[in-house]
Design goal:
This protein is an all-alpha fold. The protein contains 14 helices and two strands. It has helices at 15-18, 21-40, 50-60, 64-91, 100-122, 127-141, 147-155, 162-193, 210-235, 260-268, 271-288, 308-332, 343-369, 374-398; strands at residues 7-9, 207-209. Helix 4 packs across helix 9 and helix 12 (308-332) runs antiparallel to helix 13. The mean pLDDT is 96. Bound molecules: protoporphyrin IX containing FE (HEM) (2 copies).
Length: 408
Amino acid sequence: MHLHPQTVNKQALIFTRTFGLGGINALLFVLLVTTGLLLRFSYIPTPEGAYDSIVNLQNNSLFGSLLRNIHHWCAMFMVITAFLHLLRVFYSQSIYYERKRNWYYGLALFVFVLAFNFTGYLLPWDQLSYWAVTIVTSMMGYLPLIGGTITNMLRGGETVNGNTLLNFYTFHTALLPVLFVVFMVLHFLLVRKAKGVTVADINKHEMVKVNPELVSKEIILALSAVLFIILFSVFFDAPLLEKANPLLSPNPSKAPWYFMGVQELLINLHPIFVTLIVPLSLAILLIYIPKIKIDNSKVGTWLYSSKGTLIVLSSAIYSIILTSLLIIVFEYWLLLYQLNIPLIISTGVIPFLMYLIPAIGFVYQLKKVLKADKVEIIISIVTMVFTSYIVMTIIGIWFRGDSMQLIF
Ligand code: HEM
Ligand code: HEM
């Protein structure tokens, strides 16, 4: 009862308002903390002990495999549900005015979810985890000036070793949980301060009692989600390959799936662009968005206007075609690194502009033909950026084979 007010706007109870995604994220976090604490009873955070302790848990403990599976799948689902929740608040115009700060807290929570997943990934200490972490920490090394230092600090040495495992274990089970809880509490507090989630019609004030109207729906959703996770964990095992071997790198060596988009970008674009220019531009975009002053009556409106669906669909399709086409062109026809000019131009500026110019052209057309306003343009840009990342993730996971060559 301390989480909710006594009454809420009836419109807030409509499922398609929130899809319950914020609540599902909170539920997944609770499940992760509970199963994580139980895992700690048997987990040994050393290169000699980690892998064997997990095999031992799986083979010799009652429900050991189930426990590990639940932790693993909750973590994977949380990347997806946190991203979907981000999309829901963005596309339902729920990030402006008094909700602006909650967008920023949300972004921090999203970064923590990725950090949790990435630090957890190393803990099983098998071939998959060892080499995925090697790849991602090397990617960080491309950051100009400070990249090498960050990589060495994270790894606690030149290569991924026992110090890395201890670093990651401490982040994963001590520092990140505390940070996450603090930000989650602030996040909830701001939802309360904004008088609940956004509603479609701000002039309708029909209030209903939280208990049982909202609480009963939350319980049904939570129980269904738990049932789904348990069933999923019964049928699908968390992956565990052979024990990590620092002398034998698998071919291809891939990052964890949620970072495959970044690895794919590195194949096509100069590292300075991947580690600095692209993330910086993205950060500026995400920080800027909620600062826009939109018409108050549009707050809470799915896709903003009657043109919204057309804008989102056309931007997504355009971005799928543009991204896939560029990847194929760079792989087979336009071998940019062979041009006799500095690499930063041939593999940096040129491919970057080859994406940027058609994208700007598209947005310009939206403005001209559909008379799109500022918010609609932002919706188009964000849709293009996210769709490109999803396309690169899919190509990285399923269409890259030996030595990361494109395969069909
Ligand atoms: C207090 C909270 C937590 C504790 C004490 C904890 C503890 C652990 C331990 C001991 C392991 C190693 C066991 C294993 O790999 O099977 C592990 C693995 C892992 N954790 Fe956590 N964890 C916590 C929260 C989280 C959260 C919030 C996430 C994600 C959002 C997460 C994601 C992962 C992942 C992806 C793995 C690797 C699982 C695997 O594939 O085996 N953990 N965690
Ligand atoms: C991953 C952990 C997160 C948890 C546990 C969480 C939890 C919640 C909950 C329970 C709500 C209210 C109900 C709902 O909208 O579903 C909410 C609203 C909100 N969340 Fe999150 N959230 C998380 C991540 C994010 C992210 C990644 C963003 C965006 C970057 C975000 C931005 C917002 C905003 C702006 C609202 C207010 C929406 C409105 O008033 O309609 N949150 N969050």
